[in-house]
Amino acid sequence: MENEANGMENKSWNQAEMPIDLMRKPEVDSDRFFKLVDSSVQGLRECRLISAAFELGVFETLKIPLSSGALAERLGCDPVLMPHFCEALHSLGLLDRFEEGVREEGEKVQTVKKGAAEGEYKEEPEDISQNQNPDKGTKNDGAVYLVSELSATYLLESSPFSQQHYLAERFRNVERWARLPQIMKQGPDIVEKGPFFGEVVHCMAENARCGLLQETVRVVRENVDFTNVKKLLDLGGGHGLYAIAFSKLNEDLQAFVFDLPPVTKETRYFIKKYGASRVDVIPGDFFKDEIGSEYDLIFSSFNPGGKVPSLIPKIAAALNPGGVFVTRQVPDEKMKSSPLMSLDWNLWTFEDVKKGSSGYSFENSVPFNEYIETLGNYGLEVFRALDMKDGSRIVFAWKVA
């Protein structure tokens, strides 16, 4: 025991005598490391902030101006934390803040109301006495909060441009990344194809309404004579918004949306919503089933099978002579720059359809340029290719008579 004690004493003495150079810096610059970690944590904070505000109903509640105290009371939240919570949302541009002081009953304040035109929001005076005056006689430290124009446009359920399904999908993605250690050990999540596309179709519809749909329809209309288009197929069309919009360009046009049965159930919802009587659905799996015939135009936008050459003969056979095939995808050279996106794509898979290793590709997919070159082998002659603002490429090819 005495020898052991002496050994420990000597070890402590040696450690104490070892010189430590406090002025020595790491050979690798620390700025890069701290910026990487801090920016990652900052992104997580902002994501969780938006997620919590959405879950708590902050944006819907703040369609009328409220102090942080009144908001906390309405939502059942901590009144001490709520001012900080509101200020954080304000810093992201998701809430407007007004210095109102004490508001008496009946005093008029500004609120956001939907205008007469679709998607138009304007500020109008509202008598808060009609809203039971939640802040009557209550001091609010000089600040009231209200949904910003950004939030009113994209986060309110009543907005035609609401992105609530998109947010829900993004938050599900965040939860998957929270399980990254588990997935790395157990392998990718197995997702059932039908229900997955049935859910994501609403997310894609919301995204399309915010500019993608309008730009795409404009470009297609400028390059295709719709007076000659009487029958159209939106292949893997999901929500069907493209087919619905195209049907408006020719009153004699009959459009069809081909997609999986669980998806076409959702497509019917959008057909009814937009009163598209000349749009119908064809449920099926385009890898296995026939897609119809005698089409003047076949349109495919971000179709999961849009880089699979084995589908080209089926597409060519379904077109009338002189008919046009329009396909839109993201070129591979614009997708290889994000290893994080490739990892994200590979964290989940379908049970009966194998995905490719790179982002948004499937088994038997080829590079988009190679896919386009293959069109000529089946009598489809490319006459135009255009790069779009979002980084995708839209290609036009007609069937040689």
TrEMBL record:
Residues annotated as domain O-methyltransferase C-terminal: 217-299
Residue stretches of biased makeup (Basic and acidic residues): 106-122
Top-level lineage group: Archaea
Domain O-methyltransferase dimerisation stretches: 42-97
GO molecular function term, any single one: O-methyltransferase activity
Chain intervals for the UniProt region annotation (Disordered): 106-139
GO BP term, example: methylation
Keyword Methyltransferase part of the UniProt annotation: yes
Entry annotated with the keyword Methyltransferase: yes
Keyword tags: Methyltransferase, S-adenosyl-L-methionine, Transferase
Protein name: O-methyltransferase
